[in-house]
Amino acid sequence: MLVLSRKAGESVLVGDDIEVTILEIRGDVVRVGIAAPRSVSVQRSELIAQVSDSNRAAASPSANAVASLAAALRKP
Amino acid sequence: MIATLAADVEPGAVRGAEMEIPEIPVIELVRPMPGFSDDLSFTLVRLDDDGTLCELRSLANPDLRFLVVSAGLFFADYAPEISDDDAQALELTRAEDALVLVLLNPGESLESTTANLLAPVVVNTTSLRAAQIVLDDRRHPLAAPLVR
């Protein structure tokens, strides 16, 4: 991992077209601005990790679970 | 990270206008679902006669499947905001083309079954492109009870 020291207002260029700017440093919170092409998805890492965990838990439920849920949802 | 509404899609309009889910033989994800980077082609199959419970099954790996329901059928007030970028990636220009599906985590009973409202799967029923859209909006829980 490349580690750089930056001050507020300074930025880092990743590749040709992704610019990461340190906007503000206040206490233990750093505000970061990211300018990237539309094709680049920018998300909080922990959010994607949560969705990934949830997806894995949801994937390929047992036949029993599917059958009982289908039965429970069946209209009377 | 600023989610803006697509110009052509009215706020709240992406509500899953179709309550009944159609079967769709091939859906192409424009990007993988988090945790499943190898699977981009899915088929949407009904598991009951009225199209309430369906599954998204990977075409490359038929053992991989996710239970889904139409968001609008269970969460009447749910109106996820789709960014311009996502709308463009899905070639989504008309709100009525958007089928909003939510993934289910089946519990031991219906009462303990949850739906992922944080990251719905939005399908453009015209272009058949889809994506799991991570909303980054605290109003939408990762595990909402399916029934209350």
TrEMBL record, chain A:
Keyword Repressor applies: yes
PANTHER family, alphabetized: CARBON STORAGE REGULATOR (PTHR34984:SF1)
Location(s) in or outside the cell: Cytoplasm
Oligomer status and interactors: Homodimer; the beta-strands of each monomer intercalate to form a hydrophobic core, while the alpha-helices form wings that extend away from the core.
Primary location: cytoplasm
Organism: Nocardioides dubius
Keywords, sorted A to Z: Bacterial flagellum biogenesis, Cytoplasm, Repressor, RNA-binding, Translation regulation
SUPFAM superfamilies according to UniProt: CsrA-like
Protein name according to UniProt: Translational regulator CsrA
Family to which this protein belongs: Belongs to the CsrA/RsmA family.
Pfam families the record matches: CsrA
UniProt KW RNA-binding keyword: yes
Known role: A translational regulator that binds mRNA to regulate translation initiation and/or mRNA stability. Usually binds in the 5'-UTR at or near the Shine-Dalgarno sequence preventing ribosome-binding, thus repressing translation. Its main target seems to be the major flagellin gene, while its function is anatagonized by FliW.
Automatic annotation (TrEMBL), chain B:
Domain of life: Bacteria
Keywords from the UniProt entry: Bacterial flagellum biogenesis, Cell projection, Chaperone, Cilium, Cytoplasm, Flagellum, Translation regulation
Cellular location(s): Cytoplasm
Pfam families hit by this protein: FliW (PF02623)
InterPro entries, A to Z: Flagellar_assembly_factor_FliW, Flagellar_assmbl_FliW_dom_sf
Main location as per UniProt: cytoplasm
Function as written in the Swiss-Prot or TrEMBL entry: Acts as an anti-CsrA protein, binds CsrA and prevents it from repressing translation of its target genes, one of which is flagellin. Binds to flagellin and participates in the assembly of the flagellum.
Subunit structure: Interacts with translational regulator CsrA and flagellin(s).
PANTHER family found in the cross-reference section: FLAGELLAR ASSEMBLY FACTOR FLIW
Family: Belongs to the FliW family.
Protein's UniProt name: Flagellar assembly factor FliW
Species whose genome carries this gene: Nocardioides dubius
